[in-house]
Amino acid sequence: MVKIIIAVFTLTFFVWSDNAYERHCVSCHRELPTSLQRMFMYYLEIYSGEKSVKVALKRYMRNPFRDVSVMPELFLDTYGIKQPLKLDERELEEAIEIYWETYQVHGRLK
């Protein structure tokens, strides 16, 4: 019984200690053949700057339509369009900020 309680506590702590990006982005994208880093590069290639990328991500997460997706047609034909995220504003902004900080290239290029 004690082992079960410890296991439940550990699992609960693990789930809630993750940030919004880990909970809502990484967990789903783990199953896709294109990495989140590659998707970030698509956004950066099309929107170029931090503010533009973040606005585009937020718009797509709320209203995912094929014509605003940055993914190639073959990817969209195979995997389709994601469902709109039901995150509150704070969590969505946190996830996008962490995503940006994780993959941004500014200041990392030598």
Describe this structure in words.
The mean pLDDT is 84. It is built from 6 helices and no strands. The protein has helices spanning 2-17, 20-29, 36-47, 50-62, 73-79, 89-103. The longest helix is centred in the N-terminal third of the chain and has 16 residues, at 2-17. It is globular. By secondary structure, the chain is mainly α.
Detail the topology: elements first, then pairings.
Elements: H1 2-17, H2 20-29, H3 36-47, H4 50-62, H5 73-79, H6 89-103
Helix pairs in contact: 2-6, 3-4, 4-6
Strand content: under 5%
Structural class: mainly alpha
Mean residue pLDDT = 84
List unreliable stretches of 5+ residues: none
Q: What is Rg?
A: 16 Å
User: How many domains comprise the coordinates?
Assistant: 1
Shape call: globular
